[in-house]
Prior knowledge:
Blueprint (H helix, E strand, L loop, with lengths): L4 H4 L28 E4 L2 E4 L2 E3 L3 E3 L10 H10 L4 E5 L2 H4 L14 H10 L3 E5 L21 H23 L15 E9 L5 E4 L5 E6 L2 E7 L6 E4 L7 E9 L9 E3 L18
Parallel strand pairs: 4-5, 5-6
Antiparallel strand pairs: 1-2, 2-3, 7-12, 8-11, 8-13, 9-10, 9-12
Amino acid sequence: MNRTLPTLLTACLIALVTAPASPHLHAQQKTLTTHTFSTEADHFTLDGKPFKVLSGELHYARIPREYWHARLKMAKAMGLNTIATYVFWSVHEPTPNHFDFTGQYDLAAFIKAAQQEGLYVILRAGPYSCAEWEFGGFPAWLLSAPEKGADILKKGADILKKNAVILSAAKNPRISSVAPQTPTFRRAHFTLTQTGDTFLDIHTLGKGALWIHGHPIGRFWNIGPQQTLYVPAPWLRKGTNEIVVFDLLPPPTAHVTGLAQPILNGPVPDQTTSKQE
């Protein structure tokens, strides 16, 4: 393979890459504004002046494009001046040499949206993404084409082996001596007459992840306070919708219910079979 995403994006780029747009800039005039970002003593400087980075994470691949500006406005209202985002290799090169920077994966459009809202951007280009993203952001085809990602996968495997040795010697009260249930995939369909922001009641599920129309909605585990998952309206359709659930600890029967509001009633009892030692 001649090109991969890491060669298109600087792998270790952590820099302020957008400048807030000036409201006085004429629509037909596009000038490139250059900035200098550095460190001085115990603080950052931007264009030679002290600058404090007030940053929060917003991952464009996780947010419907229709909601980008709304989320950026919220971040600005919170007092942030910077947004940090990962660049997930897996969504931009789903198959070797086939790149996708369109629609929700239009990285340039997201950066421009941040600029329009008066925010700087810290671009975390990867290739590894430590963000609870499947396979660390690596594309799944690396597993079937080891010659194209052998070095990356080998380093990752070495780290996993070292962690496995550490974990095997530790006692975790959450780990039960009882053999776990067989992990299962469940797929179902539901019909909607209208769409809107929705919350899914997931309290009957065990531990796993959930997708709607292939969009990763989130992870769940029945030992904590979370009882609902948020589904943005643009990811739902009038008519038939598909939901897929992967459950490591599947109950005999399970159901998911759509709600207009999240369940925020505090922690729920620990439903695992393990006991503290």
